[in-house]
Design goal:
The structure holds two protein chains of two kinds. By secondary structure, chain A is mostly helical. Chain A folds into two domains: about 50-270 and about 340-450, Alpha Horseshoe (Serine Threonine Protein Phosphatase 5, Tetratricopeptide repeat); about 275-335, no CATH class. Chain A contains 19 helices and seven strands. A two-stranded antiparallel ribbon of chain A has the order 2-4. In chain A, strands 3-7 form a two-stranded antiparallel sheet. In chain A, strand 5 and strand 6 (about 320-325) form a beta hairpin. In chain A, helix 9 (about 180-200) packs antiparallel against helix 10. Classes of the chains: A mainly alpha, B mainly beta. At the A-B interface, helix 1, strand 1, helix 2, helix 3 and helix 6 of A face helix 2, strand 29, strand 30, strand 31 and strand 32 of B.
C-alpha cells in the first residue's frame, strides 16, 4: 500500500515536472513581445522598398528640417567666431571673443548634429544594398547618403580639425574611434562626393532631392580646401559651364528666392516656419545679430550687395546693420517672395575658381572670375596687373563680402584654411584672440566618453 | 488566513484501507467540523421535526427511525455506538436538532448536520490539563492515545507530542489524534506543541493499559505567530528565514489617508516612504532598503492579490498637471486592504527573481468572514491644511526692501524696472503663500461593507467613496468611488477552493494645470485686475516670474483614473499535503488627462504673448496586465522534519498604451475641452509597448525539530526586455534560521528568553526595470516633413548585449522574545551590492546617439542596520498598552566606478560617497567690504567653475529614520499615538527662493534679517540688490551660487506626530439594546504636529507644496 502511495505521488510529481518542462520549452517563444507600434525595427526598414525610400526621405527631413544648426544657427555661431557678427546679449560671447571652452553647449550641439546625420547616412549606405529595390535605386540612395555624409564630415573637419571619420553604424567601432587626420577626412569626403557625382542625376530642382550639381559644387569646394587647385578649378569650371540653367542671378534681391537660378542647393522652406529671417530687428537688442563695422564698411561705394543684403535699424538707441539676405520672418503673402535657404550657389564657384587660378598663377583668369562677381555687384572691375598675393587678398575680400552669413560662415572657414585668422582676428580682438582658437574645442563631453579623443590645444 | 493550510487532511491510502470505509467518509467530513459553531447554528435551522417514542432502543435503531422520518442519513463508526447505553425517549414533534441533542447528550457524542447528513463524532472536552489518568494494575507497559484540539475543539494536525525523558515523540494526524505505543510503565511528562499555540504540559502514569488524554491548546497572541502573507504563501515570523514585515488593516484604517502607501510611512524598518508634495493624488515614493540604482527607477515589485500592479505613474509627460506623477496607488482604496507585506531580503524576494531586486510589496485585500451577515458602515469627515506655509515679507517690508535695494545698487527706479514701486498701489497686500497654499481642504470618506457566508462560501462586498479638497487655491478635489467584491468558496470535501476578487475604482482629480508654487514669489502688492477688469499683466518686463499669480487659477488639470483588478485562485488538494493551485489575474488601469489652458490664463502683453491664443492637451494612457501562475505545493512531515516544496511558473503580459494630443488656438475657451474645436494640432504622439515575462520557480523549505530551518529558492526568468540570447536569467537564494530558544539549556537556564532566533540569508535578485525594446535598433517616423514627405529616422541604437542586472544581498539578523514574547526585539544587518546595473549608458555622440542601454560596471553598495521592538507593557482585562519602535540606519556608497571621471556622472557621483550626493560650492562668508557672498575657489584659478570647484557636500539620504508608536486600550477606549522621525540633511529655502532680497519678487522674511550695508559690515546676509545679472554683485549669488552651494544644504531632520487616533467602542450592553453589533466613534489626525529646525517649507517635501495636516472624526457601525 505504501508503495502505491509513493508511486502515485511520484507519478504526480513527474506529471508536474513535465508541465513545468513544457512551459520552459515554450518560454523562448513566449517572451518575444510584439514590436512597438511607434517604432520600426531596423531590419524591417530595409526589407521593403517603401520603407527604404522613407529612410532616405528621413535623411533629408532629419538633416534639413530637425536641425536648427543647418537652417540657421550654423551661419551665426561661426560668424561670431569670425569677424562677421556680434550678438545683442552675452549669450554667444565665447564665440565672439574666441574664448570657447570645451564645455560649450552650442559647440557640443553642433558636433552632435553632424554625427547624428552621419549615422543616418551610414545606415543607408550599409543597408540599402540588401534592400529589395532596383540596382539603380540602390546606387541613387547610396549616392544621396554619401553626399550627406561628406557634407557633415567637411564641416566637422573645418571647425574642429582632425575629427573621427565615421563610416559605419557599428557602435563597437564608432564609440571608440579616435580622431582622423584632417587630410584623411577630406580625402574621404572627396571620395564620397566623387562616387555620388557619377550616380546622381542632372536636375534643375534646387530645393528638392540632391542632384549631380550639388555633388560637383561641393567637390569643387573640397578640392579648394585640400589645396588641390587644378581639380578645384576643373570642378568649378564644370559647374560654371553647366547646361542645367544654373547661372548668376543678375538681380541681387532675387538670389535667395525660391527657384533662384543661381542656387545650386536650397532647402525648401515650405513647412519650416521661416527661421531664416530670425535676425531681423525686433523690439529688443537682446536677440539681435549685428554686422560688425569691418564688414559693412568693407564695401566699396555703390556696392549693390550692401544695399540689397544688409539692413540697418536703431533699437534701444543703438544703430546697427543686420543681415538681410532673407527678408521674411514669417511666410510671405506673395508666392513670388518665398525664400528658400541657400546651401550652395554659383557665385561661390566663381570665387573658388578665382582662388584656384590665382594659386596656379593664372592671375588674369582669377581676375576675370572676380570681376564677374564685382560686375554684378555694380562696382568697378579689377584691372590686370596685380600680384598673386594681391589677387588672393582680393579673392578673400570678395568671398567675405559676397558670402557673409552663408555656408555656416565661409568667412570663418576661409580665415582658418588660409592661415589668415591670426592676422585678421588678432587685430580685431586683441584682448582675447589666441592662435589656438582657430579650431573649436573638441567637446569635453565627448572626450570624457571616448578617451581616444584628444582635446584641441 | 489560510487555516486550511495548517489542518489539511493528512493520511495515506494504506491507513484508509486499514480503518475501513466508514472512516473514509468520516474523514472527508472532518473538515466540515472546523467551524463547529457555525454548523450548530445551521443545524438549528433545519426545519425537519421528528416524533420519537422509544423504549430501550439501541442507538442504531434510533438512527434508523429518524432516517425513516426525515430522510437524513447518519454517519458514524461502529466503535462509537458499540457500547452506547440503550435509549428510552418520548419526543413529540421536536426539531431534529433538539431531538439529536436530547438523544446524544449522554452518549458522549456530538453531531453536526450537513447536506441531509448527520455526522457524529465523539464529544471532546475542552480542558487544558489532562484528566487524571486511570491507574491500571497491569504493569507491562501501555499505549498513550490522545487528541489535540484548538479552542474551538477542532483538531490540530501536525502537533508535536513528546515525552522528553523517553526521547519519544510523534505527531497528531488530521483528526488531531496521536498514538505513542509501547510505553514502559512509569510517570511521564508529556509536552505537546503546535505552531501558534501555547505549549501543553501534562503528566500521565502508564501502568499497562492505554492512557487517553485530550489536549486543548490555546492560540498564542504572540506576534511571532501571526500569519503573514509571504511570497506564494503564508508564514509566521517565528519560522521565517527571510526579512519581511507587514502592516494590518487596523493600522491602515486609523490613518486618514487616501493612498495606502502613505499609511506605511515610518511604520517599518528599511521602508522609506516620501511624499512628492501635498497636492491630492500626487506622487509618493516607496523605497525598500534604499534606491541603489544609478539611473533607473528603483521601484519595488507591487503585487495586489497576486496580480502585478504598476509602480510607475501612467502620466504622460506631455500632459502634466499640478498633481505631477499621479500615484497609481491613489486608485486603491486603503479600506479594502487586509494587509500589506513588505519583503526585503534575498530569502524573501528571490522567488520573484528578476523583479524582486528592489523588494516586494504584497497587498492583500479583504475577504468575507463566515457567520452572521454583517453590515458595516464607516463614515468620517474632517479637514486638512498644509503643515507649513512660508513666511514672506508683507507689502510694507517688501516696498522698504526694494527701495533700499535700489539705493544700494545706485539704480533709479523707473516704470520699466520698478512697477511695484511706481505703478502699483504700494499699500495693497496679498499674502500669496497663504492665498496659494494656505487653504483648508475638506476631507470626507464613507465606506460600506457587507460580509457573510458560511464555511463553504464567504462573500464580501464593499463600497467606498472619498472626497478630498486641496490646500492649494482653486476648486480642486480628488473624488474616488470604489467597489470591491470577494468570493471565497470551498467544495464540500474542502479539496477545491476558489477565491476570486474584483475591484474597481474610479478616481477623479481636479487640480491646476501647473504647480502654483512659483506664484508665491509674486510681489505682495501685485495687482489682480487691470482697469478693464481683466487679469493684470506687467507690461514689458524681462525679469523672471512676472506671471499674474491668479492666472494659475484658470489653468485646469484633470486626471481621471479607472482601475480594474480581478483575480482568481483555484486550489485543489490532489493528495493530502499536495496542493495544485492556479492563480490568474487581470488588471487594467486607464488614465485620462486634460490640461486646459484658456486664453484668460495667458499674458496679454503683445511682446510676451504666447505664440498661440490658448491650448488644451489630452492624454490617455492605459496599462493592462494578465498573469497566470500555476503552482504545485507539497507539504510533508517525516519525523522531526517538515518539508515544504513549491514549484510553479509565471506567465505575464503587460500592454502599455499612450496617446496624447495638444490643440491650439481654439476659437473660444468655451469649447476648449474638445479637441475637435482646436484651431490646429500642435503636438501629438502615441506609443504601444508590450512586455512579456515568463519564469519557473521553486522553493524548498526544511524544518527540523522546529529548531533548524533551511529555505532555498531558485527562479529562472525570461523577459522580453532583453535581446535574443540574453532573455533568461537565473536567480536564487538560500536562507537559514536557528531557533536557539528551543535548546534545553536556554529553556532551563534562561527562561526569560522565550524566543531566540538567528537567521541569515544570501541570494541574487535582479531587475528588469528598463524600457521595453531597448535591445532593438529602431527607426521612427519623422514628425517634420521635407518637401511634403516625412521619412523614417534612426530612433534608437541597438545594444543587444546588455543583460540582467544582479543584486547580491546578504543579511544576518537576530530575533529575540522575552517574558513570553511580551517583549520582542529584532536586529538585522544587510548588505546589497550591485555591479552591473542596467542604465542608459552614455555614448560619445560620434556614434550618432547619446545613450544606449548597457550594464554599468560601477559597484554600488547599501548596508544598513535595522532595529525594531514591540512590547506589550500592560495586558490586563481592561487595560492594554502596546508599544512599537523601529529605526533604520541606511548607508549607501559608490564603491567603485571604473572611468567615473570620464563618465557623464563625473560631477554627480564620487567614489566612496553616498549615491544621492549633494555637490556644490563651499560657502564662506559675506564679504565685509561689499556685502557679496563669498564661495571657495577650490582650484584657486580665480573663478568659480562647477567642474573644478564643487565639493562633496553630503548625502541627501536619511541618516536614520523610523517610528515610535503606542496603543493604549482601556475598555472600549483606544488611543493610538504614532510618531515618525527622520534624521537627514536636505536642500533648504536657498534652493527654492533663488532671488536676492531687493529683487522684484518676494522673499522669505529671514532673507532680510541682517543684511550687509556700509554701516553693517559684519552682516550674516548679503547686501540687498535689485539685479542678479552682475556677476560681481551680491544678487548674483542667489541664483548662481547659493543654489549650488552647501549654504542651500542643511539639516532637514524632523519628528512628527504622524498619527493620533482616539476611538471609543460602545459597550456591548449598550449596543446590544440598539440591535447593533458594534458601534465605534473616533477622531483621527495625521501629521498633526511637526518638530523641525528646517529653514523652509516642510522638511519632508522640502521645496514643494507641503504635506497635509489632517484631522477627521467619524463613526463606524456594524449591524
Amino acid at each position: 500500500m505504501l508503495i502505491t502511495t509513493k508511486l502515485y505521488n511520484q507519478l504526480l510529481m513527474m506529471a508536474g515536472a513535465l508541465v513545468l518542462a513544457g512551459m520552459f520549452s515554450s518560454c523562448k517563444k513566449y517572451v518575444e513581445a510584439d514590436l512597438p507600434k511607434d517604432q520600426l525595427e531596423g531590419s524591417r526598414v530595409f526589407s521593403s522598398a517603401t520603407n527604404t525610400l522613407a529612410a532616405v526621405n528621413g535623411l533629408y527631413t532629419f538633416a534639413l528640417k530637425n536641425a536648427s544648426f543647418i537652417t540657421y544657427q550654423g551661419d551665426l555661431l561661426a560668424g561670431f567666431s569670425a569677424d562677421e557678427f556680434t550678438f545683442g546679449s552675452t549669450q554667444y560671447d565665447d564665440f565672439t571673443n574666441n574664448t570657447l571652452q570645451a564645455g560649450n553647449a552650442d559647440v557640443l550641439a553642433t558636433w552632435k548634429l553632424f554625427y547624428s546625420v552621419i549615422y543616418q547616412a551610414n545606415g543607408i549606405i550599409e543597408k540599402v544594398p540588401g534592400s529589395p529595390v532596383s540596382d539603380s535605386l540602390k546606387a541613387l540612395y547610396t549616392a544621396e547618403a554619401k553626399v550627406f555624409r561628406a557634407f557633415c564630415h567637411l564641416y566637422l573637419t573645418s571647425y574642429f580639425g582632425d575629427v573621427p571619420l565615421i563610416q559605419t553604424t557599428d557602435v563597437t567601432v564608432t564609440a571608440t574611434a579616435p580622431r582622423t587626420a584632417k587630410a584623411t577626412v577630406l580625402a574621404a569626403v572627396a571620395k564620397d562626393l566623387s562616387a555620388a557625382e557619377v550616380i546622381l542625376p542632372y536636375g534643375t530642382v534646387r530645393n528638392g532631392r540632391l542632384n549631380k550639381w550639388m555633388a560637383t559644387a561641393l567637390l569643387a569646394r573640397v578640392y579648394l580646401y585640400q589645396g588641390n587647385w587644378a581639380a578645384a578649378e576643373a570642378k568649378a569650371t564644370t559647374m560654371i559651364n553647366n547646361n542645367s540653367g544654373i547661372a548668376l542671378q543678375t538681380d541681387l534681391s532675387k538670389v535667395f528666392l525660391r527657384g533662384s537660378k543661381e542656387a545650386i542647393w536650397q532647402i525648401n522652406s515650405a513647412d519650416n516656419n521661416y527661421v531664416y529671417g530670425t535676425s531681423l530687428p525686433g523690439t529688443s537688442l537682446n536677440y539681435q545679430v549685428m554686422i560688425r563695422p569691418g564688414l559693412y564698411n568693407g564695401y566699396e561705394t555703390g556696392d549693390l550687395r550692401k544695399t540689397n543684403w544688409m539692413g540697418s535699424a536703431t533699437v534701444q538707441s543703438t544703430f546697427f546693420y543686420y543681415p538681410y539676405k532673407y527678408k521674411n520672418a514669417s511666410a510671405p503673402a506673395s508666392a513670388a517672395a518665398i525664400e528658400d535657404y541657400v546651401l550652395m550657389r554659383l557665385a561661390e564657384q566663381y570665387l573658388i575658381r578665382a582662388e584656384a587660378r590665382a594659386q596656379q598663377q593664372n592671375l588674369t583668369g582669377a581676375i576675370d572670375d572676380l570681376n564677374v562677381i564685382r560686375n554684378r555687384a555694380g562696382i568697378t572691375p579689377l584691372v590686370v596687373g596685380l600680384s598673386q598675393s594681391d589677387v588672393l587678398l582680393a579673392v578673400e575680400k570678395e568671398r567675405r563680402l559676397e558670402l557673409f552669413g552663408e555656408g555656416y560662415s565661409h568667412r570663418w572657414i576661409d580665415l582658418n584654411r588660409t592661415n589668415r585668422a591670426n592676422a585678421v582676428l588678432g587685430a580685431l580682438k586683441p584682448g582675447t584672440w589666441k592662435s589656438t582658437a582657430a579650431l573649436w574645442p573638441i567637446p569635453q563631453n565627448e572626450i570624457l566618453l571616448n578617451p581616444a579623443l584628444t582635446p584641441n590645444p | 488566513m489560510h487555516l486550511f493550510d495548517m489542518v489539511s487532511p493528512h493520511f495515506g491510502l494504506s491507513w484508509l484501507r486499514r480503518r475501513g470505509l466508514h472512516f473514509l467518509l468520516l474523514m472527508k467530513l472532518t473538515l466540515a467540523f472546523l467551524l463547529a459553531g457555525t454548523l450548530f447554528a445551521s443545524a438549528k435551522g433545519v426545519g425537519q421535526n421528528v416524533t420519537l417514542h422509544l423504549n430501550n432502543a439501541s442507538l442504531q435503531q434510533t438512527f434508523r427511525e429518524i432516517q425513516r422520518q426525515t430522510g437524513y442519513t447518519f454517519l458514524y463508526t461502529k466503535q462509537m455506538v458499540a457500547d452506547a447505553p440503550k435509549i428510552t425517549v418520548n419526543l413529540n414533534n421536536v426539531s431534529l436538532a433538539d431531538a439529536l441533542t436530547e438523544l446524544l447528550q449522554k452518549q458522549g457524542l456530538e453531531f453536526s448536520i450537513d447536506n441531509k447528513m448527520v455526522v457524529l463524532r465523539r464529544k471532546v472536552k475542552a480542558i487544558t490539563m489532562a484528566p487524571p489518568a486511570p491507574v491500571p494494575t497491569d504493569t507491562s507497559g501501555g499505549e498513550l492515545r490522545g487528541v489535540v484540539l484548538n479552542e474551538n475543539n477542532s483538531p490540530l494536525q501536525g502537533a508535536t507530542i513528546r515525552i522528553t525523558t523517553l526521547n519519544r515523540s510523534t505527531y497528531s494526524n488530521a483528526r488531531g489524534e496521536f498514538t505513542l505505543p509501547k510505553l514502559p510503565p512509569g510517570k511521564y511528562t508529556i509536552e505537546i506543541s503546535y505552531v501558534g499555540f501555547t505549549d501543553y504540559t501534562g503528566t500521565i502514569t502508564v501502568n499497562g493499559n492505554s492512557v487517553n488524554i485530550t489536549a486543548a491548546l490555546k492560540q498564542v497572541l504572540s506576534q511571532l505567530d501571526e500569519i503573514a502573507v509571504v511570497a506564494y504563501g503564508t508564514s509566521t515570523k517565528r519560522y521565517t528565514t527571510g526579512a519581511q514585515t507587514a502592516i494590518k488593516s487596523q493600522d491602515i484604517e486609523k490613518q486618514p489617508v487616501t493612498n495606502p502607501i502613505a499609511a506605511l510611512q515610518g511604520r517599518m524598518t528599511g521602508v522609506l516612504v516620501t511624499n512628492a508634495n501635498g497636492i491630492p493624488g500626487s506622487g509618493i515614493s516607496l523605497q525598500i532598503r534604499g534606491n541603489y540604482s544609478l539611473s533607473n527607477r528603483a521601484d519595488p515589485l507591487y503585487i495586489v492579490d497576486g496580480v502585478p500592479y504598476p509602480a510607475a505613474s501612467l502620466v504622460t509627460n506631455s500632459v502634466s498637471t499640478a498633481s505631477g506623477q499621479v500615484s497609481p496607488f491613489n486608485s486603491i482604496n486603503p479600506n479594502d486592504i487586509e494587509s500589506i507585506s513588505i519583503l526585503k531580503d534575498a530569502d524573501a524576494t528571490a522567488i520573484y527573481g528578476s523583479r524582486g531586486g528592489n523588494g516586494v510589496v504584497l497587498i492583500t485585500t479583504k475577504k468575507g468572514k463566515a457567520g452572521k451577515t454583517t453590515f458595516d458602515v464607516n463614515a468620517c469627515s474632517g479637514s486638512s491644511v498644509a503643515t507649513r506655509v512660508p513666511d514672506f515679507l508683507n507689502t510694507r517690508q517688501y516696498i522698504a526692501t526694494r527701495r533700499k535695494a535700489f539705493a544700494a545698487d545706485g539704480i533709479t527706479p523707473t516704470t520699466s524696472n520698478a512697477q511695484d514701486l511706481l505703478l502699483w498701489d504700494t499699500t495693497a497686500y496679498t499674502n500669496f503663500p497663504k492665498l496659494i497654499m494656505g487653504n483648508t481642504a475638506s476631507f470626507s470618506n464613507v465606506q460600506a461593507a457587507v460580509s457573510g457566508g458560511n464555511e463553504q462560501t464567504r462573500i464580501l462586498l464593499s463600497l467606498g467613496y472619498h472626497n478630498e479638497g486641496s490646500v492649494i487655491y482653486g476648486n480642486n478635489y480628488d473624488k474616488c468611488v470604489s467597489g470591491h467584491l470577494n468570493v471565497d468558496h470551498y467544495s464540500l470535501d474542502k479539496k477545491l477552493n476558489i477565491n476570486t476578487t474584483v475591484s474597481y475604482t474610479n478616481d477623479n482629480i481636479r487640480t491646476l494645470a501647473a504647480d502654483p508654487f512659483l506664484a508665491i514669489y509674486a510681489p505682495p502688492n501685485f495687482p489682480h485686475y487691470d482697469s478693464t477688469g481683466a487679469l493684470y499683466w506687467i507690461p514689458k518686463d524681462a525679469q523672471a516670474n512676472t506671471a499674474n499669480p491668479w492666472s494659475y487659477l484658470n489653468k485646469v488639470g484633470r486626471n481621471f483614473t479607472d482601475n480594474f483588478i480581478t483575480n482568481m485562485t483555484v486550489r485543489y488538494t490532489v493528495l493530502p499535503g499536495l496542493n495544485a493551485k492556479v492563480n490568474t489575474g487581470f488588471s487594467k488601469m486607464y488614465l485620462t488627462q486634460q490640461v486646459i489652458m484658456p486664453a484668460t490664463a495667458f499674458n496679454t502683453v503683445p511682446s510676451f504673448a504666447a505664440p498661440y491664443k490658448n491650448y488644451a492637451s489630452f492624454g490617455n494612457s492605459s496599462v493592462q496586465t494578465y498573469i497566470v501562475e500555476p503552482q504545485l505545493e507539497y507539504t510533508k512531515r517525516a519525523g522531526d522534519l517538515s518539508i515544504n516544496a513549491l514549484a510553479g511558473g509565471t506567465a505575464q503580459r503587460s500592454l502599455t498604451k499612450t496617446n496624447y494630443i495638444t490643440g491650439i488656438n481654439y476659437s473660444t475657451d468655451d469649447l476648449i475641452e474638445t479637441i475637435s474645436a482646436a484651431g490646429s494640432i500642435y503636438d501629438k504622439g502615441a506609443s504601444s509597448r508590450e512586455y512579456k515575462y515568463m519564469s519557473g520557480f521553486s522553493r524548498l523549505s526544511l524544518r527540523w525539530l522546529n529548531k533548524y530551518i533551511v529555505n532555498g529558492t531558485f527562479r529562472r526568468d525570461g523577459s522580453s526586455r532583453f535581446g535574443p540570447g540574453k532573455r533568461f536569467g537565473n536567480f536564487w537564494s538560500i536562507g537559514g534560521a536557528y531557533i536557539f530558544s528551543e535548546e534545553n539549556f536556554i529553556r532551563n537556564y534562561l527562561p526569560v528568553l522565550s524566543f531566540g532566533k538567528l537567521r541569515a540569508s544570501y541570494g541574487i535578485t535582479g531587475s528588469d526595470q528598463l524600457q521595453d525594446y531597448r535591445y532593438l535598433e529602431t527607426y521612427a517616423s519623422n514628425y517634420n516633413t521635407y518637401n511634403g514627405v516625412n521619412g523614417l529616422y534612426a530612433y534608437q541604437i541597438a545594444n543587444p548585449v546588455f543583460s540582467w542586472e544582479a543584486n547580491r544581498k546578504v543579511e544576518v539578523a537576530m530575533d529575540l522574545g522575552f517574558l513570553k514574547d511580551r517583549i520582542l526585539l529584532s536586529a538585522s544587518w544587510y548588505r546589497n551590492r550591485s555591479d552591473n546595473q542596467l542604465v542608459q549608458a552614455p555614448l560619445p555622440s560620434q556614434t550618432g546617439f547619446d545613450y544606449y542601454q548597457a550594464n554599468l560596471p560601477a559597484l554600488i553598495q547599501m548596508t544598513s542596520l535595522e532595529f525594531e521592538g514591540n512590547t506589550v507593557t500592560i495586558a490586563k482585562k481592561d487595560w492594554r498598552w502596546q508599544t512599537t519602535f523601529n529605526i533604520t540606519f541606511p548607508k549607501d556608497k559608490l564603491v567603485s566606478y571604473p572611468g567615473l571621471a570620464s563618465s557623464p556622472y563625473a560631477n554627480t557621483y564620487a567614489i566612496g560617497q553616498p549615491l544621492k550626493l549633494a555637490r556644490g560650492y563651499h560657502y564662506l562668508t559675506i564679504n565685509s567690504a561689499n556685502g557679496v557672498p563669498q564661495f571657495e575657489d577650490q582650484n584657486k584659478d580665480g573663478s568659480l567653475n562647477s567642474t573644478y570647484d564643487y565639493i562633496n557636500i553630503g548625502s541627501l539620504n536619511p541618516k536614520f529614520y523610523g517610528g515610535f508608536g503606542n496603543t493604549v486600550t482601556w475598555k472600549g477606549l483606544t488611543l493610538d499615538i504614532f510618531v515618525q522621525f527622520t534624521k537627514q540633511n536636505g536642500y533648504n529655502a536657498y534652493r527654492a527662493y533663488y532671488f536676492p532680497p531687493g529683487y522684484k519678487v518676494n522673499v522669505p522674511t529671514f532673507y532680510v534679517k541682517d543684511n550687509w550695508t556700509p554701516t553693517n559690515t559684519n552682516a550674516s546676509q548679503s547686501a540687498l540688490s535689485t539685479t542678479v545679472s552682475n556677476s560681481n554683485g551680491p544678487g548674483y549669488a542667489y541664483p548662481y551660487r547659493y543654489y549650488y552651494s552647501d549654504a542651500a544644504y542643511s539639516d532637514a531632520s524632523y519628528w512628527r506626530l504622524k498619527n493620533l487616533a482616539l476611538s471609543y467602542t460602545l459597550p456591548k450592553k449598550l449596543t446590544g439594546k440598539m440591535k447593533v453589533q458594534h458601534l465605534r466613534v473616533y477622531v483621527q489626525g495625521q501629521n498633526l504636529f511637526t518638530h523641525t529646525g528646517y529653514q523652509g517649507l516642510d522638511p519632508e517635501t522640502q521645496n514643494a507644496t507641503p504635506v497635509l495636516k489632517t484631522l477627521t472624526g467619524g463613526i463606524q457601525i456594524t449591524l
